[in-house]
Amino acid sequence: MPTTKLLITGGSGFIGGNFVHYMINKYPKYAIYNLDALTYAGDLTKHKDIEKKENYNFIKANVLDRQEIFAIFEKEKFDYVVHFAAESHVDRSITDPEIFIHTNVLGTQVLVDVTKKTRVKKFIQISTDEVYGELGLDSSSFFTEDNPLQPNSPYSASKASADLLVRAYHQTYGLPMNIIRCSNNYGPYQFPEKLIPLTITRAMNNQKIPVYGDGKNIRDWLHVLDHCAAIELVLHKGKNGEVYNVGGHNERTNLEVVKTIIHTLGKSEDLIEFVTDRLGHDKRYAIDPTKLENLGWKPTYNFETGIAQTIQWYLDNKDWWEQIISGEYQDYFEKQYKL
Q: Under CATH, to which class is 4-336 assigned?
């Protein structure tokens, strides 16, 4: 029987879903609980291969539902919580900021309240490098854990607020926690609204590929499985109360990323369509992961190997992303659980 109970909120999303797979396969003696509200980006079909495993459990619940969350924690007595559940698409935060504040800030407050009450051993807050603001395009500087928080979008402001709340609970109540801030993730099962899967799927269908502004915004790209390994390390060995940055040492402009995908698929650059830039679009993000590397983590993917693997995954799993685009995935929960 499993002796350690790990709750993963947002475990049907992109990074959370990959982390569920990672932990299920690496720790068969852990009981893994995936708690997800199954909003538009929550996809259970990615867990078809593991949903029958004895150590996998799914709970449909919203982190904003304080009464239900407290009842779940009181019943299950979780040892650890890794908190992914969040609204995360910047464009959506610009058009509808309110839901980001509710889910990302108030939902986090519910979780730290219940974590404190039920004496969970550690709470891991999954955050983003976007809370630091932006770096200049010609800058050789990098974000460290000591950078001030200067968010520039409603999304990043909501994540920064949640981070500060988690820190405050640690300082005030002694909440055992770590905060992990990552650079841009890519890899299997990413929702097709994001840059890399959007480019792959549109190029495969010979559709126009939108690129904001001049495409010169720079991001540091991190393979999702390297991120999962970092989270696992911090979960087990992170020093209580510390923040850890996770970066892939893979800076690329958005345009470089798009062209790499197009060329790999043998498509024409004529598919690229420059569109009006996003409001408050940060120029550059770059992470210094030295602190995490000193803990024992190293990325295993460079961008060339990681993007090639990712493109191949989307080629091999067309059925998955087609049912995401069509919306069919949203019926899977009702069918699987016979509701």
A: alpha beta
